[in-house]
């Protein structure tokens, strides 16, 4: 159960409690409505019956309801990069699906988190802020409560979160830095793959690309920053550019001599903490198969 508490200052007098909760904790209107309906906001220890204007020294406390997930527990490794009362940020391994689906009903990160919670004596509903493809590694964000998830999703969609990836791609990219601004969508309604569509079709999609290193073997290591978060965005944009991600068989990037999955890693995020509002940065080290692929690309002549 997560609690948010603050003491009313002289400057706060005359401001309604609803506005104070929004200003201090950035609660969404939906969450505020739910807290009031559930009688989970307290003024000096008493349940708040209506939105009122408190006095200096009054103590306001909002209590988020205790929630839980109910996935079967499995022994899936969980590598924690950062954890506090509101967030859990993981370094996801390749080859594991994030959340149970029809095609992957078990052996997911969600199943591993159930075991992790038991071992660390925690209970929270698993709320993924972002998703990664099964064979993409790197930063995966879990909100431990609805406020943390809502706030970070708003940052992600509103441009307040910076998401950077590292990839190894086919071909030598000549430009140092550039932006791909092309809409992405399904070529047919039931297609698994996505593609770049003509202007006016699909969803706006923007990927910023910076070259990190070029290899005589015919590969380039790049840093990519997402300004939008479409399904398969990096993989589609780089394939459309003629530089598919190495190992990405779905989009024409097979590279069995280097790696057996797409060489794509969610490397860094920058955001404002949903409660403290302090800038935060988390990075995930490259996994072994990607570092080995990069070393191979350097050596191949």
From TrEMBL:
Domain Pseudouridine synthase RsuA/RluA-like as annotated: residue spans:
86-239
For this UniProt record, give its keywords in alphabetical order, as a comma-separated list.
Answer: Isomerase
Q: Active site: which residues?
A: 133
> Which GO molecular function annotations are given, in alphabetical order?
catalytic activity, acting on RNA; pseudouridine synthase activity; RNA binding
Give EC number(s), comma-separated: 5.4.99.-
GO terms for biological process, alphabetical: enzyme-directed rRNA pseudouridine synthesis
- Superkingdom: Bacteria
* UniProt family annotation: Belongs to the pseudouridine synthase RluA family.
PANTHER family registered for this protein in UniProt:
MITOCHONDRIAL RNA PSEUDOURIDINE SYNTHASE, RIBOSOMAL LARGE SUBUNIT PSEUDOURIDINE SYNTHASE D
Can you name this protein?
Pseudouridine synthase
Biological source species: Hornefia porci
- What taxonomic lineage is listed for the species of origin? Bacteria, Bacillati, Bacillota, Clostridia, Peptostreptococcales
């Amino acid at each position: 159960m997560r609690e948010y508490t603050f003491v009313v200052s002289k400057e706060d007098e005359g401001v309604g409690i609803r506005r104070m909760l929004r200003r201090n904790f950035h609660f969404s209107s939906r969450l505020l409505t739910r807290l009031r309906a559930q009688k989970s906001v307290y003024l000096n220890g008493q349940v708040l019956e209506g939105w009122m204007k408190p006095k200096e020294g009054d103590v306001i406390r909002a209590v988020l309801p205790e929630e839980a997930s109910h996935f079967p527990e499995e022994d899936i490794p969980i590598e924690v990069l950062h954890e506090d009362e509101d967030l859990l940020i993981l370094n996801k391994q390749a080859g594991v699906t994030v959340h149970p689906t029809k095609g992957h009903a078990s052996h997911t990160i969600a199943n591993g988190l159930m075991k992790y919670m038991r071992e660390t004596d925690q209970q929270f509903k698993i709320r993924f802020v972002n998703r990664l493809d099964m064979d993409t590694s790197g930063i995966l964000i879990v909100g431990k409560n609805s406020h943390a998830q809502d706030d970070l999703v708003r940052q992600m969609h509103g441009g307040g979160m910076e998401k950077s990836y590292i990839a190894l791609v086919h071909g030598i990219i000549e430009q140092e830095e550039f932006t791909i601004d092309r809409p992405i969508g399904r070529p047919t309604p039931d297609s698994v793959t996505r593609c770049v569509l003509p202007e006016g079709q699909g969803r706006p999609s923007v990927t910023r690309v910076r070259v990190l290193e070029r290899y005589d073997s015919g590969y380039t290591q790049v840093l990519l920053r997402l300004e939008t978060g479409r399904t398969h965005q990096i993989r589609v944009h780089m394939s459309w550019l003629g530089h598919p991600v190495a190992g990405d068989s779905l989009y024409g990037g097979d590279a069995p001599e280097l790696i057996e999955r797409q060489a794509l890693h969610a490397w860094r995020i920058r955001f404002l903490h949903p409660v403290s509002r302090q800038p935060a940065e988390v990075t995930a080290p490259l996994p072994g198969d990607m570092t080995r692929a990069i070393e191979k690309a350097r050596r191949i002549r």
